[in-house]
Design goal:
This protein is mainly β. The strands form two sheets. Strands 2, 4, 5, 6, 9, 10 and 11 form a seven-stranded mixed sheet that branches. A hairpin with a 6-residue loop joins strand 4 and strand 5. The protein is elongated. The N and C termini lie far apart (about 35 Å).
Length: about 120
């Protein structure tokens, strides 16, 4: 189970920090990331961090958002700076993980709303 938090309402140019923590028995985490879905749009990748330490960002957030992880605490963070109205969306965390009993699968958090006013 993934629990996300940190969303809210902020003015353009402001900052927010999202966090997402996994609970339960986890044998291995292959990737931890964030996606977002704006109204009437498809869900899109925002940022992802892989087990080896590499990261990947959507072009629209490069230089403004930073993903970080605390593997021991099974937590991923998304620091969002210089927010723009077009960043408004529901943000979902996603873990690619393996439990002790099965293969690597995708797990999703419940979503947290980020609203950026102009």
């Amino acid at each position: 189970q993934l629990q996300a938090s940190g969303g809210g309402l902020v003015q353009a140019g402001g900052s927010l920090r999202l966090s997402c923590t996994a609970s339960g028995s986890i044998a291995y985490i292959a990737a931890m990331g964030w996606y977002r879905q704006a109204p009437e749009k498809q869900r899109e990748l925002v940022a992802v961090g892989f087990g080896g330490g590499s990261t990947n960002y959507a072009d629209s957030v490069k230089g403004r958002f930073t993903i970080s992880r605390d593997i021991a605490k099974k937590t991923v963070f998304l620091q969002m700076n210089n927010l723009k109205p077009e960043d408004t969306a529901v943000y979902y965390c996603n873990f690619q993980l393996r439990t002790p009993w099965g293969p690597i699968e995708a797990h999703w958090g419940q979503g947290t709303q980020v609203t950026v006013s102009s």
